[in-house]
Amino acid sequence: MKITFYAHASFRLEGENTEGETVAVVTDPYTPGPEVSNFDPIAEPADVVIMSSATDRFHSDPSHVLGNPVVVNALEVPAEGVTVRGVPIRAFPTMESLTWDFGRDPDANAMYLFTLGGVRCLHIGDIGNPLDPAHLDALAGQVDVMFALTGGHATIALDDLDAAIAAIRPRVVIPMHYFAPKGRLKILPVTEFTARYPAQAVTWVGDTSLELTPATLPASLHIYVLDQSR
Question: pTM of whole model > 0.85?
Answer without folding.
Answer: yes
